[in-house]
Inverse folding.
């Protein structure tokens, strides 16, 4: 019978603690009728710097290596889905061509078309060799142009 008072006091203590935690109400919830605030220039700049950082570049390259290893294990790579190849090429270009505004289109037969802009001629010449590093890419058509950044 000694355990009964212990259990009752434990339940009372937990009940008391639980009552002290404020309830979440609709006042603390986001209002769906309010329009989202536009990001500030500082937020935009921070996001841009993060996207072009060395850490982000290493993360993208690690992701590409992981995809390649997975494709090697599963036997994929030769006849990969066009969307998968395009996504991998896009990641490769994003990681190695900072500031580029590129889109990648792929076909099921391994043809890649890269459109958009890069900051300089050096970046433009990197597009084809970087794209061909991705397993499943057979032909690269570069329709990107050089357009130096404004500002």
């Amino acid at each position: 019978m000694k355990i009964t008072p212990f259990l009752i006091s434990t339940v009372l203590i937990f009940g008391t603690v639980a009552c002290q935690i404020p309830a979440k109400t609709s006042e603390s919830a986001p209002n769906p009728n309010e329009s989202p605030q536009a990001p500030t220039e500082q937020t935009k700049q921070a996001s841009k710097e993060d996207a072009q950082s060395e850490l982000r570049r290493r993360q993208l390259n690690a992701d590409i290596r992981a995809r390649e290893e997975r494709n090697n294990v599963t036997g994929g790579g030769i006849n990969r889905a066009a969307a998968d190849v395009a996504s991998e090429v896009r990641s490769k270009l994003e990681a190695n061509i900072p500031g580029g505004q590129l889109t990648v289109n792929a076909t099921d037969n391994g043809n890649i078309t890269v459109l958009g802009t890069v900051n300089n001629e050096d970046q433009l010449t990197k597009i084809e060799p970087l794209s061909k590093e991705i397993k499943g890419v057979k032909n690269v058509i570069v329709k990107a142009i050089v357009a130096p950044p404004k500002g």
